[in-house]
Amino acid sequence: MKEIPDNSVDLLLVDLPYGTTQNKWDSVIPLPDLWEQYHRVVKENGAMIFTASGMFTAQNKWDSVIPLPDLWEQYHRVVKENGAMIFTASGMFTAKLILSNPKDYKYNCTWIKSKATNFLNAKKQPLRKHEDILVFYRKQPTYNPQMTSGSAYSKGIRKDQITGSYGDFRPVLVKSKGKRYPVDVLYFKTAEAEGKVVHPTQKPVSLSRYLIRTFSNPGDVVLDNTSGSGSFLVAALQEGRNFIGIEKNENVALFKKQKVDYIEVTKSRINQAVAITDPAILAHLKRINLLDVERK
Q: Which InterPro entries match (predicted)?
């Protein structure tokens, strides 16, 4: 990630290792290092969005938490000042991630999944059916609310109100033509509903596309520095965004004790996505040679 130019990323969308499983790859990255890089590459008004789950009790190398100070150093370098930095997370990893950079943390959404987990502990604990989506940024990033449909209404004139939370409310006509602003609880089916699953923590492309549409614009640059099977990259392609993906676990036994080359998996998924992507987007990708994957 140190090779990425400063302030070049519009949206950081990452599914970091949570450090919650017995998988060797699930090691938590040092957060301070991550934040340094994120602040460097993400634009000042770019969003930073993360997914995460569970506690920092990794017993597997792939699920080891990356040193967060190192990550933040890089994130701050490459993400534009108005770029969003978005992570998935849950449990103690949510707390750890927020506390690693409370200055940039703004809010979280809850992803309700179609399929629960934690069945081995079902007699001891509730099944787990949600993950957090953490939103960080330094300056207000792009925000395109994904509106939903409802019934139109008119509730008449709201009288003057005084509250300690938001200040004075002036008289206003309360009405809606049927459009509803999004809330912070999101329902999306898990990756199994979209087809073959090739990674233990594979995220659904549908959720990824929703987040990318919300926090970036067509032509923006999306970074995922732990890209795994490439769900966020496929989503970026389908939404007409440029993207940078980084994955170190090449040709390793991460899934059902089978060796999987996640670079090749990502290339294959991108090529499959090309077949159903808007022709105008494909023309842009060919011009910039985006579909070539470089190994280092």
A: DNA_methylase_N4/N6, RM_Methyltransferase, SAM-dependent_MTases_sf
